[in-house]
């Protein structure tokens, strides 16, 4: 994928450090989805947007999906872009596009966004706070980048998009289908369609400390011990009622600090849950209950099991235990079953010839049965 550059060299020299353009990274690339099919998908999801630079209600107008046919028939001839996030959660063929990028762990990968643009279509010069691979799927696009800092006062006011007011290009490329541009976080870039074109954006998760702390505190509120109230049974008379004494200050600080997780394992288990909760814009998985006997029958008939497209699954090792997390659910498993769990995490479609020997062990059998029952896997038709 990186030409003469190995994955190890890419991670050492480019990842989160500097941009890299790889010509013909995906030779003879054919988009699994047409522009009409992308428009159809935009009519089914609220993760779609249309950005109209010229010819809309105002410059850089943003319209939000889900759309209908009339929304597309009334667009100007040029200078608009359709963007659809989370397309990998809709089609297995699109999920497969992300497979070559799994040298970065799954928990770090966010989504596949696909954009279709007519001539002149763009979302303006901007910065992203996360790493992104930009794969040209159809047509031609001109990319420009710069090292100039994106100061807060260098953005156009009163717009939904954060578009840089002043952008001085330092490097420029015209990309063709199969070309791949990697951009680290916070690199100002500007892409403009030279003709009808489609671009795949493989984006990566980069939660802020504020995001993680907010969710940690939110989840901690479910802990029954946090219902206790501040108490001071050893209080003594105070000379000035307006003073916050050192003793009271220390008591209050301890009271707040004690509310936070007090051991590393608690934080580890919280992280496993946090990183595998499905995205909020997806419909909850509705799995049909599968009895143990029915699951045995499926295995005997050598059925294939397919990982659901919106599944988030990971594991980590701690002492003699293996902690498996799938869509926010936690399973404690002995490390002797590590090879089976690795197989589950790595594989999109489970084939009988690969999984059968694992299922001779009851723990492995029960684990896959449970994951099938909650919709992490389903029977492939």
Can you characterise this structure?
The structure is a single chain. 25% of the residues lie in helices and 23% in strands. With 381 residues, the protein is an alpha+beta fold. The chain has two domains: 7-204, Cupin (Jelly Rolls), CATH 2.60.120; 292-379, 3-Layer(aba) Sandwich (Malonyl-Coenzyme A Acyl Carrier Protein, domain 2). The chain has an eight-stranded antiparallel sheet. The longest helix is centred in the last third of the chain and has 13 residues, at 264-276. The two termini are 32 Å apart. The model has no long low-confidence stretch (mean pLDDT 94).
Gyration radius, rounded: 25 Å
Specify the structural class: alpha+beta
Instruction: Give the helix proportion (percent range).
Output: 25-40%
Q: The CATH topology of the largest domain, please?
A: Jelly Rolls
CATH class of the largest domain: Mainly Beta
How widely separated are the two ends? 32 Å
Strand fraction equals 15-25%
């Amino acid at each position: 994928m990186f030409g003469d550059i190995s994955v190890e060299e890419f991670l050492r020299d480019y990842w989160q450090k500097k941009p890299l353009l790889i010509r013909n990274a995906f030779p003879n690339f054919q988009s699994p989805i047409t522009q009409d099919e992308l428009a159809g998908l935009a009519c089914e999801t609220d993760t779609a947007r249309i950005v109209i630079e010229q010819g809309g209600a105002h410059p850089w107008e943003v319209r939000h999906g889900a759309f209908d046919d009339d929304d597309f028939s009334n667009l100007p001839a040029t200078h608009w872009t359709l963007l659809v996030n989370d397309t990998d959660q809709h089609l297995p063929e699109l999920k497969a596009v992300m497979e070559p990028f799994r040298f970065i762990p799954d928990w770090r990968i966010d989504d596949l966004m696909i954009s279709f643009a007519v001539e002149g279509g763009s979302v303006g010069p901007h910065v992203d706070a996360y790493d992104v691979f930009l794969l040209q799927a159809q047509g031609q696009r001109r990319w420009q980048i710069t090292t100039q800092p994106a100061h807060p006062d260098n953005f156009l006011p009163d717009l939904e998009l954060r578009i840089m007011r002043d952008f001085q290009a330092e490097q420029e490329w015209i990309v063709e289908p199969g070309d791949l541009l990697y951009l680290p976080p916070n690199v100002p870039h500007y892409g403009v369609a030279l003709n009808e074109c489609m671009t795949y954006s493989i984006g990566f998760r980069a939660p802020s400390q504020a995001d993680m702390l907010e969710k940690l505190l939110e989840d901690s509120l479910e802990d029954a011990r946090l219902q206790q109230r501040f108490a001071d049974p050893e209080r003594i008379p105070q000379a000035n009622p307006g003073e916050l004494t050192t003793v009271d200050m220390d008591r209050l600080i301890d009271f707040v600090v004690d509310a936070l997780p007090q051991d590393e394992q608690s934080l580890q288990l919280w992280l496993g849950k946090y990183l595998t909760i499905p995205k909020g814009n997806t419909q909850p998985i509705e799995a049909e209950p599968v009895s143990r006997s029915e699951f045995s029958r499926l295995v005997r008939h050598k059925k294939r099991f397919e990982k659901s497209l919106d599944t988030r699954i990971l594991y980590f090792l701690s002492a003699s235990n293996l902690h498996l997390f799938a869509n926010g659910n936690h399973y404690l498993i002995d490390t002797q079953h590590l090879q089976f769990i690795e197989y589950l995490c790595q594989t999109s479609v489970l084939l009988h010839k690969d999984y059968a020997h694992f299922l001779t062990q009851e723990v492995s059998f029960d684990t896959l049965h449970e994951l099938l029952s909650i919709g992490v896997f389903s029977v492939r038709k």
